[in-house]
Hints:
Layout: E1 9-13, H1 18-29, E2 33-38, H2 52-63, E3 69-73, H3 79-93, E4 98-101, H4 117-145, E5 149-154, H5 167-187, E6 192-199, H6 210-216, H7 225-236, H8 246-257, E7 268-271
Parallel strand pairs: 1-2, 1-4, 2-3, 4-5, 5-6, 6-7
The structure holds nicotinamide-adenine-dinucleotide (NAD).
Nicotinamide-adenine-dinucleotide is lined by residues 13-14, 16-20, 38-39, 43, 49-50, 75-77, 102-106, 126, 130, 154, 156, 199, 201-202, 204-207.
Amino acid sequence: MPGRVEGKVAFITGAGRGQGRSHAVRLAQEGADIIAIDICHDVQGALPMATPEDLAETVKLVEAQDRRIVATQADVRDYDGLKAAVDDGVAQLGRLDIVLANAGIASLGGPVQDMDPRNWQNTIDINLSGLWNTTRAAIPHLIAGGQGGAIVLTSSVGGMHAMPNMSHYVSAKHGVVGLMRSLAVELGQHHIRVNSVHPTNVNTPMFMNEGTYRLFRPDLENPTADDVAPVAAQFMHVLPHGWVEPEDVSNAILFLVSDEARYITGVPLPVDLGALLK
Ligand SMILES: NC(=O)c1ccc[n+]([C@@H]2O[C@H](COP(=O)([O-])OP(=O)(O)OC[C@H]3O[C@@H](n4cnc5c(N)ncnc54)[C@H](O)[C@@H]3O)[C@@H](O)[C@H]2O)c1
């Protein structure tokens, strides 16, 4: 049976680990070849990023699905590097159909008046301008292909409601919705659909780390993920779980980029255990 994105090529940012890797593997399982980029070095003020070894592991996992992958170290803040990576991927794989602008960083910034301005700027540069760069590097290939396409921008529940001490992240993720809607109206004439996904906590290094555990459980000396789960479930979610798995987001994205969603564009789709109901 053909896969749901058989014969298509997907460009994915932040594919070295976490959700980006999961999207690469899930789309490869359904027949897509992958153009992957990741920064593969750390960013000031943010948690440790993926490593070159992580990106190499993504390559292995995609190839294990008998699909091709072109992987490059690139920073979404660097338009020229990003464009070179996409151009090279398209030259090798022959086309481009799908763009997943997923790369992002998170940090606890503190109240607006106390936030380190570099922290604000890095977050806006990567989590908002980085998605703008990603799409403007890719769109000419989608249009030139003449067969439409699908773009999914990764936002967050923080792109649809407020979170204290996270104004940098929340502002960038709200901005992603504006970018998504702008792209949707501009690209519809080319049969290119643009949507965004809004995950709650996801089981990736961005959420699963000591800093987050301490935030949720300041009452414990050495909190673990198991200590966090019931608290996150109770205070954040309607469905009684602390977080979703990367595959849950990948499956939502797979639907959005497949022909099953052929008339869906301009939609912010929560994958959030009901977080936005609270
Ligand atoms: N984990 C969560 O709880 C959660 C919740 C909602 C939304 N998100 C969003 O999901 C997306 C994926 O995050 P994740 O959960 O997989 O976290 P993650 O930290 O595991 O993965 C992020 C990836 O992006 C890469 N990256 C960061 N900055 C980059 C840059 N400038 N250029 C290229 N690559 C860069 C990192 O190296 C890493 O591989 C992010 O946009 C994040 O904001 C995450």
